Amino acid sequence: MSVRIAIDCMGGDQGLSVTVPAAMRCADEDPDTVFLLVGRSQDIQAELHRQERQLRGPLGRRLRGPLAPGRLEIVDAQGMVAMDDPPATALRAKRDSSMGIALELVKTGRADACVSAGNTGALMAIARFVLKTLGGIDRPAIAHMLPNEKAGSTTVLDLGANVDCSAEQLLQFAMLGCALVSALQGRERPTVGLLNVGEEVIKGNEVVKQAAELLRASGLNFHGNVEGNDIFRGTTDVVVCDGFVGNIALKASEGLAQMMAGFVREEFTRNALARLIALIARPALGRFRHRVDHRPHNGACLLGLRGIVIKSHGSADAYAFGFAIRRAIEASRHQLVMRTEAAVAPLIANLAGRPAVASAGAL
């Protein structure tokens, strides 16, 4: 299935030096996808030429073949959203930025999905204004599948889009998370956990306690309260929290993985004997390094919108940003918005006490 992906080339901590080479590599790997590179056209063109020289040079990784004409299209956008721009400023004054125009391409149907490593608050504000939310959903949430020890994944949301949430919004996030798992993993009744400071019913602040009551009465497969370590144990399929807690949990886990990898590297380079042992253990160490590398898990879906938006880490390198692009391609080919809407509609109708209307696209 051919898809078109709009890329906010100016977003992120490093901008063009990350987004353009990642798009080129994905274009090289996936001949059925067209990439719309949104940003300052003259700068994008210069970066494309620079990357082509490096990739085709004697020390570069050569492309599999010449990129077909039209596979990489440049869409001019002279403005950009800075990483420290307040969301209100970005929404009011920067709709013509690379981020805003990339989202407009999704709205008009010229692109199937948008990928950005830019300012999270600005991305949510502009995306919510341009694309609108699904019926019954107040706010979009950043949802991502994190690896767990059961060789599967745990879908966690929200990971940073909404710092303050009501109990009703946490319930909506649970519905969105279940819809995502059902759409992509084929599970009919995913289990849901509410992230808390303890498993006991009496634990948590008032919002979390109210959310637990709503979840118990919702008809969802609610497991109960879960703690931070349950995310990686795979205790439930979906873990729900507000964006403040979720983003801290995500960044803390990534920092821990990087620290552990650093500790292992230090110990195996401490002296000659350690280096010899490292040489013998090199295959196992390589597998360990791959398993704790957070970059292949980059790219989270801004779920609940009438369009596919993938948020990359602002600090992502080209390797990591490529995975965010691939997630956008996968979500487009899975028709994620249609399937999510079909899965969420009966849940919302059930909560409202109205009979759900069957949808042709229902799971």
Question: Topology, please?
Answer:
Layout: E1 3-8, H1 16-29, E2 33-39, H2 41-56, E3 72-76, H3 87-93, H4 98-107, E4 113-116, H5 120-131, E5 141-147, E6 153-157, H6 167-185, E7 191-195, H7 206-216, E8 221-226, H8 228-233, E9 238-240, H9 243-267, H10 272-280, H11 282-292, E10 300-303, E11 308-311, H12 318-333, H13 336-351
Helix pairs in contact: 1-2, 1-12, 3-5, 4-5, 6-7, 6-13
User: What proportion of the residues form beta strands (DSSP E)?
Assistant: 15-25%
Structural class: alpha/beta
Give me the side-by-side strand order of the main sheet: 3-2-1-4-11-10-5-6-9-7-8
Tally of DSSP helical segments: 13
Task: Give the beta-strand count.
Answer: 11
Low-pLDDT segments, ≥5 res? 354-363
Shape: globular
Order of helices and strands: EHEHEHHEHEEHEHEHEHHHEEHH
Mean of all residue-level pLDDT scores: 86
Q: Compute the CA-based radius of gyration.
A: 21 Å
Helicity range of the residues? 40-55%
Largest sheet, strands/sense/barrel: 11 strands, mixed
Q: How far apart, in Å, are the first and last alpha carbons?
A: 20 Å
Summarize the structure.
The chain is built from 13 helices and eleven strands.
Structure description:
- This protein has 13 helices and eleven strands.
- The chain is α/β, with parallel strands linked by helices.
- Residues 354-363 have low confidence and may be disordered.
- It is 47% helix and 15% strand.
- Strands 3-2-1-4-11-10-5-6-9-7-8 form an eleven-stranded mixed beta sheet, with helices on both faces.
